[in-house]
Design goal:
Layout: H1 3-14, H2 18-29, E1 34-35, H3 36-43, H4 47-59, E2 63-68, E3 82-87, H5 101-118, H6 122-143, H7 152-162, E4 167-170, E5 173-176, H8 182-187, H9 189-207, E6 213-216, E7 225-228
Antiparallel strand pairs: 1-3, 2-3, 4-5, 5-7, 6-7
Helix pairs in contact: 2-3, 2-4, 3-4, 5-6, 6-9, 7-9
Length: 233
């Protein structure tokens, strides 16, 4: 499981505790950062419990801390700054099976910007933008030392596994048991599947693995793309 997904699951799991969830909702509902005393009083909760749960939410990245003197005074005798809590800017999104609609949105928005700017046909812009994104995914994985070993097909599958594709070996080829763009692909099949194929081609190109090819081969229960050690013509 990718670390990012594990972190998001941990953050959402932290909100399963009712008191912690209530504190999070309270902090988010307030227009300004709140102290643990304010939160405890508002929810009728012991101060030590509020402190524990608020700090756990900070650890999970759901809240952030700032220090400020609530009296507004400064200088000697003004007292120590209070520890205040507010919602963080971290975005947490979990879907199981794994989906990456944000990735699709970024590719499509970038392609549209290009098409509007220089007149590139939109289908070409989508394919080229997706391929560039695939090369970046490969580069990031290679930089982490995650694709140093194995055959070209295995290395490609490893990168795709990091992004939720769930690769499976079938008759010597690699089929993808999950489509990270499933709902979009169901509603806009030609566009999204072409984008997906271009992205995976970009991964293969970025890894510089000779003899690996990807092709559109839709099958029930699988993503539209199939990989093999026999490059398509």
């Amino acid at each position: 499981m990718p670390d990012e997904l594990a972190d998001d699951l941990s953050a959402i799991g932290a909100l399963a505790e009712p008191a912690r969830r209530a504190l999070y909702r309270y902090v988010v509902s307030e227009p300004h950062a709140v102290s643990r005393e304010q939160a405890a009083t508002a929810l009728g909760m012991p101060l030590h419990s509020a402190k524990f749960h608020l700090d756990r939410l900070v650890e999970e990245g759901l809240l952030e801390v700032q220090f400020r003197r609530l009296s507004g005074r400064s200088g000697p005798g003004a007292g120590r700054p209070s520890k205040l809590y507010r919602r963080s800017d971290r975005e947490v999104s979990v879907s199981l099976p794994e989906r990456h609609y944000d990735l699709a949105g970024d590719v499509l928005a970038t392609a549209i910007d290009r098409a509007l700017g220089d007149g590139t046909p939109i289908d070409q812009a989508v394919r080229e933008t997706a391929a560039a994104q695939g090369r970046r995914l490969a580069a990031a994985s290679t930089a982490q030392g995650a694709t140093d070993e194995g055959t070209g097909l295995e290395r490609t599958a490893q990168v795709l596994a990091e992004h939720g594709y769930e690769p499976r070996t079938v008759d010597g080829d690699v089929c993808l048991a999950n489509c990270p763009f499933d709902r979009l692909a169901a509603e806009h099949t030609d566009l999204v599947c072409a984008m997906n194929l271009a992205l995976i081609d970009g991964v293969i190109e970025g890894l510089a693995v000779p003899g690996v090819g990807a092709e559109l081969a839709p099958a029930p229960g699988f993503c539209c793309v199939r990989l093999s050690s026999r490059p398509r013509d």
